[in-house]
Amino acid sequence: MDMSAGELKLRPGIAARLERLPMTNYQRSLFGIIATAWFFDSMDLGMMTFVLGSIKAEFALTATQTGLLASSSFLGMFLGAAIAGLLADRFGRKPVFQVSMVFWGVGSLLCGLADNVTSLMLFRVLLGFGMGMEFPIGLSMVSEIVPAKSRGKYVAILEGFWPIGFIAAGVLTYLLLPVIGWRGIFIALSVPAAFVFVVRRRVPESPRWLEDARWLEDVGREREADSTMAGIEAKVQRAWGAALPPVADTYAPAPRRDRKALFTELWRGPYARRTVMLWLVWFFALLGYYGLTTWLGALLQQAGYAVTKSVLYTVYISLAGIPGFIFSAWLLERWGRKPTCALMLLGSAAAAYLYGQAAVLRLPVEQLIAAGLCMQFFLFGMWSVLYAYTPELYPTRSRATGSGFASSIGRIGSLAGPYLVGVLLPVTGQGGIFTLGALSFVVAALAVLLLGVETKGRALEEVSH
C-alpha cells in the first residue's frame, strides 16, 4: 500500500517495538561486541601518542615532520568518516562496520612493515581510513539498538572504551617497546581485526535502518526488518525470562524518503542549526584534543624525561579518563546532553591551560601529573557526551551520514592540531600550545550553549521530528 508523507502506518513500527524492550544480557552482548571492536580501534589510534617520540628519534624528524606524521592518520579518518556515513545509510550498518575493521587491520600491519617515514605516513592514512569508517557506524548501531531510557548511558560507555584503549596502548608500549620496537607493536595490533568474524556472526543489522530502507528498490527490506526485529524480541524475551511489555498503541509517520538527498537533508529545517553546531564542536574539540594529546609523550621527552618515563607518565595521566567518562555517562542521563557537553568542554579548557602553565614553570613531576589527570578527566568526559549526543540529532535515514560528516569535519581539526603544534612549538613553547588548546575548547562550548538542543530521555524518532 502506497502511503503519502502525512499518512500513518497501520501497525506499530520498529521504533515502538524496540523502545518497549527491557535491557537484558542480549542487548548488552551486542553492545559488548561493538565495544570490543571499538576498543582495539582505539588502541591503534592512541598508540601514536606513545611511539611518536621513538619514531621521531629513529628517523631524525624535525618538529614539523613529526607533526605531519602524527596528523597523517587523521587525513584517512576524514575520508573514512564521510564515506562510511553515506555508505551505511545506503547499504546498511553491519557490512560497512565489517569493512572498516579490515581496513584498520591491514593498515596497522603495513605500518609495522614500513621502512621509511613516507611509507609510514601513507599506511597511517590507510589505518585512519578504517578507523574513521568504524567510529560513526558503531555509534549509529548502538544508538539504534538501545532503548531511549538507556541510550545515552550506553553510547557514553562505548566512548569510554577509547580511554581504556588509550591506556591499554600505553601499557602495551611500556611493556613491549623495549622488546619488539614500535614496528612489532603495530603488527601485533593488526591481529584483532579478525574479530570481524564475530561481528558477522553475532550482530544483526539495525532493524530501524531496515524499516527505513523499505523505500529502496529492494522490496524485501520490510520483511527483513520484521524478521530481524522478531529475532531480537525472541532473544530479549528469553534473556528477560518473562513476557515482553505490550507495544505502545502509537503510530509513527512513515514518509517516502529520497535517499539521493541524504547530505542535503543535513541543511534543511531544524537539522541545519544542529549541523552547524556539531561541525563547530567537532572541529574545535578535536583540534584541541589531538593537538595536545598526540604530543603528550613527545613533549615530556623534550622536557628531559626518558622514553620509558614519558610513556609511563602519559599512562598515569590517562587513567583519569576512566572516572571522567563514567561521570559523564552518569551526568548525561541526570543533567542532560547539552549542559554536560558544555561542562566537559569548559573543564577541558581550564585544565589544559593549567597543565600548560605547569609545564612552563617546570613544576615537580607530581604537580605536572596532577594537572594532567585533571585535564584527561574532562577530555575523556567530553568524548563520551560528544559521541552520545551526535547520532541523536538526525533521523534514521541520515543518522550515519550526519554523524559521519560531523566526525569527518572533526578530523580536519585533528589533522590540523598535531601539525600546528609542530609548527608553533618552537615559537610559543609548551605554554602557548596548551593555551591554544584551551581556546579551542571554549569555542566548542559556546557553540553547544548557543545552538544545541536537549535530547535526554527522548526516542530517536521524537528528536528527529
From TrEMBL:
The record lists the membrane-crossing segments as 30-55, 67-88, 95-115, 121-142, 154-174, 180-199, 276-298, 310-332, 339-356, 368-389, 409-427, 433-453
Which CDD domains does UniProt cross-reference here?
A: MFS_SV2_like
GO molecular function, a single term: carboxylic acid transmembrane transporter activity
Gene3D superfamilies (UniProt xref)? MFS general substrate transporter like domains
Name of the protein in its database record: Major facilitator family transporter
Recorded GO cellular component terms are: plasma membrane
Q: How does it sit in the membrane?
A: Multi-pass membrane protein
Q: Where in the cell is it found?
A: Membrane
Keywords attached to this entry: Membrane, Transmembrane, Transmembrane helix
SUPFAM superfamilies, per database record: MFS general substrate transporter (SSF103473)
Q: Which residues form the Major facilitator superfamily (MFS) profile domain?
A: 30-456
Provide the primary localization. membrane
- The highest taxon in the source lineage is Bacteria
